[in-house]
Amino acid sequence: MMRKTAAVFFLALALGITGCTFQPSSPEENTAAAAGDDRQEDAETENTETEGTETEDGVSDSSSAAYMTADTRVADVVSDPDFEGFGQFLFPLNGREPDQNMTLESIDSMLPYHNYINTDTTLDVLNSMKDMVSAGETIFYDIYTDEEKAEDPDKENTGLFFFRGDPDAPFAVVNAGGGFSYVGSIHESFPHALELSRQGYNAFALQYRTGGADVACEDLAAAITFIFENAEELGVSTDCYSLWGGSAGARMAAYLGSYGPAAFGGAELPRPGAVIMQYTGHTDYTENDPPTYACVGENDGIANWHTMEQRIANLSEAGVETEFHHYPDLQHGFGLGIGTSAEGWIDDAIAFWQAQLDSSQGEA
């Protein structure tokens, strides 16, 4: 398994943005999504033919089915042999054993800072991961060496999930929120990364340490460094990469966008070509911030949308390219926003990043 070599630089400012060229996949070329649709139909047929059995606690045991369904138990997912070594990071367990009665359609209680948890999206993500593993893909990478983990055992709780797009396409790192008390990847980074990969981009979802922005940003800096150092083997372009995040994850993306990986213990590397932020009260910024896209719900009781709007206005006044959206009747932590007024926002965000890719190539 690839490991990050020790490369630590403590600088307050990072280098500029480099150019790249990439054209996203068209819907007709999106064979991964089509395969996912076929898989869902096959799963429905197989699950009809292979009915689950009732366990002593009355929960249907669907582990014998070829694919996961809404009544698959979280505990069975975590212990699935396909997910060995990282199953504990698929849900915000924080080292705890999963509730043996909890199924995939009832994970809301694990995500107290999130809303609009969509079971179909959860199933799409997990079954797609199984498909990747079955195809022989490595989908989880350590970002720290054994020596670094020995010095700080909490670094065992980190890593990068990789959702592959087109060979040598640019990459994004998506950071889920959770108030720095948990990492809500199943709702707020895995679905985003999967959608990005289906549109041809390479996407990573970061499992970071909880406990505060400092250690979380250190992990993001380490992750970016890891990707740059192993870009050839991973098959990704490092030009004009983007950082994504929701809530606490948006703070991480913004901090790294403002100050670069070196400021948080990573290598001296370029800042991202774009930052994509969802619902956060983060106000810090610099006049040299990357182009920034932001979106938030108008009924967000955690991150007031006017606060986010003001930061975007400040960036715009400083000459930074920005785009801002606020959606009616929408609360905090909406993820992809399926079935809400924000549905489709990720396509706007991808278009914003693609515009930076196109622009940087024109300047190269």
Name its key features.
single chain; 364 residues; alpha/beta; Rossmann fold; eight-stranded mixed sheet; two-stranded antiparallel ribbon; 11 helices; 10 strands
Q: For this structure, what is the CATH homologous superfamily of the domain at 132-363?
A: Alpha/Beta hydrolase fold, catalytic domain
CATH C-level name of the domain at 132-363: Alpha Beta
What overall form do the CA principal axes indicate? globular
Average pLDDT across residues? 87
Classify the secondary structure makeup into a structural class. alpha/beta
What distance lies between the first and last C-alpha atoms, to the nearest angstrom? 34 Å
Radius of gyration: 20 Å
Number of helical elements: 11
Number of strands: 10
Helix percent band: 25-40%
A few lines on this structure:
This protein is α/β, with parallel strands linked by helices and 364 residues long. The protein has 11 helices and 10 strands.
Description:
This protein is an alpha/beta fold. It has a domain at 132-363: Rossmann fold. The chain is 34% helix and 14% strand. The protein is built from 11 helices and 10 strands. The strands form 2 sheets. It has an 8-stranded mixed sheet with strand order 3-4-6-5-7-8-9-10, with helices on both faces. The protein has a two-stranded antiparallel sheet with strand order 1-2. Helix 9 (248-259) links the parallel strand 7 (237-246) and strand 8. Helix 7 (213-229) packs across helix 9 (248-259). It is globular. The protein starts with 30 loop residues before the first helix and ends with a helix.
